[in-house]
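Inverse folding, one chain.
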């Protein structure tokens, strides 16, 4: 990894050495916020921000994200989690304390098109996205020079229908070796097998070149042009074994008109894909997303 990327990561770790996020989902009832807030106060923590949402005030599911700081947090991780168990059990919580200074390691999968990859690399270089890019995996050689110029490991894993299972086993071994936390499919034009996906539940982020559920499958821009659409878009979502039907993290659209041919639609589409994927990845890395069934709650 080059010096600019390393510097951003080091500065972030130092700035956030006592910083963590607490994500909670549980059946809604009175007293949840008070109990958690009082707990954090008793541990000497300072709540920097909190956001909450309830699906239904009458017996729905309650979601909340606390952003807090606490002195000597790295030395108190186990103690803090052990003490929180009592409250978690009382309110039947699904919960995580995620420590900001434990930087997530990201793997990027890409094929020939490089626009989504380049956007992620640029935002990491600029410090807008903070993550340790552990490696880039591709079934083509096209982006090797771009990746290696930033001192990021690049792995070429050509794949065919006959070698798919063998190649995925190789890829999984690489991900294990690099201790990867999140995978981003930056226009990786392969369908992952259920066996692969099962290793990374809600940890694989994809970008889809249409405003789902519109124009699923091949040639979306050609089909959109034939339909005479006035809006085109992109969707970023978690990958599940239901093709392109995983929980949606972010979507965006642009207005088009009759003067835009297929090539222009593709150009505009690539711009939308870049920003939608970058936002989804950033929110995931900042622990702003809770998956609830096949939906997501994304906290500001």
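Residues assigned per position:
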């Amino acid at each position: 990894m080059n010096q600019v990327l390393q510097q951003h990561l080091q500065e972030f770790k130092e700035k956030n050495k006592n910083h963590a996020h607490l994500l909670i989902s549980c059946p809604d009832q009175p007293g949840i916020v008070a109990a958690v807030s009082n707990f954090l106060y008793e541990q000497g923590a300072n709540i920097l921000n909190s956001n909450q949402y309830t699906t239904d005030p009458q017996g729905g599911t309650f979601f909340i994200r606390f952003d807090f700081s606490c002195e000597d947090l790295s030395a108190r991780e186990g103690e803090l989690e052990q003490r929180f168990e009592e409250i978690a059990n009382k309110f039947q919580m699904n919960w995580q304390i995620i420590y900001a200074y434990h930087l997530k390691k990201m793997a990027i999968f890409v094929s020939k098109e490089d626009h989504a990859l380049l956007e992620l690399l640029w935002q990491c270089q600029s410090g807008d996205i903070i993550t340790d890019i552990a490696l880039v995996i591709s079934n083509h050689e096209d982006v090797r020079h771009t990746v290696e110029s930033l001192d990021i490991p690049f792995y070429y894993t050509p794949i065919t229908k006959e070698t798919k299972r063998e190649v995925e086993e190789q890829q999984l071994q690489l991900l294990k070796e690099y201790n990867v936390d999140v995978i981003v499919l930056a226009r990786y034009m392969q369908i992952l097998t259920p066996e692969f996906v099962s290793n990374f539940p809600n940890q694989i982020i994809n970008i889809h070149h249409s405003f789902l559920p519109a124009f699923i499958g091949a040639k979306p821009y050609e089909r959109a042009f034939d339909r005479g659409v006035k809006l085109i878009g992109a969707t970023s979502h978690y990958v599940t074994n239901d093709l392109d039907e995983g929980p949606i993290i972010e979507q965006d659209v642009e207005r088009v008109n009759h003067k835009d041919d297929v090539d222009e639609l593709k150009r505009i589409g690539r711009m939308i894909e870049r920003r939608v994927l970058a936002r989804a990845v950033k929110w995931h890395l900042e622990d702003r997303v809770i998956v609830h069934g096949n939906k997501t709650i994304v906290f500001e």
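The chain is about 35% helix and 25% strand. The first strand starts at residue 19 and ends at 27.
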